[in-house]
Design a protein that fits this description.
- Helices cover 43% and strands 17% of the residues.
- It is of the alpha/beta class.
- It has a domain of 195 residues: Rossmann fold (3-Layer(aba) Sandwich), CATH 3.40.50.
- α1 links the parallel β1 and β2.
- α7 crosses α11 and α8 runs antiparallel to α9.
- The two termini are 37 Å apart.
Length: 318
């Protein structure tokens, strides 16, 4: 099968290329050159039809990982451009070229802060531009799928993804833990759904090769869900060190986040601490993966092994 991975130069895309290229012809379409697979890379802006035609021609399947996803993307209009308008352009060229299979990585951010263990039918109340535009992008792809009975669409909504070489929020947390500068905000009893990159890419592969539904939507979460205290304790055991048992009250941590917001506005700089990051850290964000668990897909790594592999690679091996 000829498979195009849009956004394939990134963290998830690189791991996905690694497992797909064994059995398929893979092309990476990205604004950024792939450091790991430069021979498979082609320059592509998802909002430029000429770029998309060039990389999508001759493809059997398009996996779209491309997105503006960081908390600090500016201007905010980039979320709409890359996430929503990008989806519109991908669907347009897919219809033009007769491509029948699209796998789209959305996000659990479309739900907002969950009030219980949200499944795929839960209310959608995104709290930021990333979640809002991912939800709108889903609607664009769904419209494409309904436009032709031969079109197949699989939407995957992963929770926060971690793993070797990731440089997102989970890595920042682990780095603070490893440095000994970590300070718990809140009581640490809030649970977090997480997903290991090695499992996420295998699930994407399963959707390409085995999912025969014309339209499907899946949350992706690796169970069990850890609360922050359990996560810190597990990290201590793997790393073999004891961290200070101090914590900061939530209200005080949030106040500090607002101070950094003001400082960022005045200096036009981005800081690792912000009010939204404090809120996300202290929120209970738990999602259901029951629908995925009822398929024949089996994640190759359990959570303990996934955390051990990540911590060993990032902080012990080096």
């Amino acid at each position: 099968m000829n498979i195009l991975i849009l956004g394939g130069s990134g963290f998830v895309g690189t791991r996905l290329v690694e497992i797909l290229k064994k059995d398929h012809q893979v092309t990476v379409g990205d604004l950024v050159r792939s450091e790991t697979y430069p021979e498979l890379w082609k320059h592509c802006d998802v909002c430029v039809d000429e770029d998309l035609r060039s990389v999508m021609k001759g493809q059997d399947c398009v996996i779209n990982l491309a997105a503006s996803h960081r908390d600090d993307v500016r201007p905010l209009s980039l979320y709409t451009r890359n996430n929503v308008e990008g989806a519109e352009h991908v669907c347009k060229i897919a219809s033009e070229l007769g491509i029948r299979l699209i796998v789209f990585t959305s996000s659990v951010a479309i739900y907002g802060f969950p009030e219980y263990e949200y499944d795929e039918d839960a209310p959608k109340h995104p709290f930021n531009e990333y979640g809002r535009t991912k939800l709108l992008a889903e609607a664009v792809y769904e419209k494409w799928q309904k436009s032709d009975p031969q079109n197949m669409l699989h939407v995957i909504r992963p929770t926060v993804i971690f793993g070797e070489r990731n440089r997102g929020n989970v890595y920042n947390l682990f780095r603070q833990l490893a440095s000994g500068r970590f300070l718990m905000v809140g009581n640490g009893k809030n649970r977090k759904s997480m997903a290991y990159v090695g499992n996420v890419v295998e699930f994407l592969k399963w959707n390409v090769e085995k999912n025969q539904q014309p339209y499907s939507v899946y949350n992706y979460i690796d169970k069990p869900d850890y609360d922050m205290n359990d996560l810190v304790s597990g990290f201590e055991k793997i790393l073999g060190k004891k961290l200070p048992p101090f914590s900061l009250p939530y209200w005080l941590g949030l106040l500090g986040g607002y101070c950094f917001d003001v400082l960022a506005f005045l200096t036009r700089r981005n800081f690792p601490i912000s009010s939204i990051r404090i809120k996300k850290f202290c929120a209970q964000t738990v999602f259901s993966s029951e629908k995925m668990l009822h398929t024949d897909f089996k994640p190759p790594y359990d959570m303990h092994e996934a955390l051990r592999r990540t911590v060993h690679f990032e902080f012990l091996q080096k």
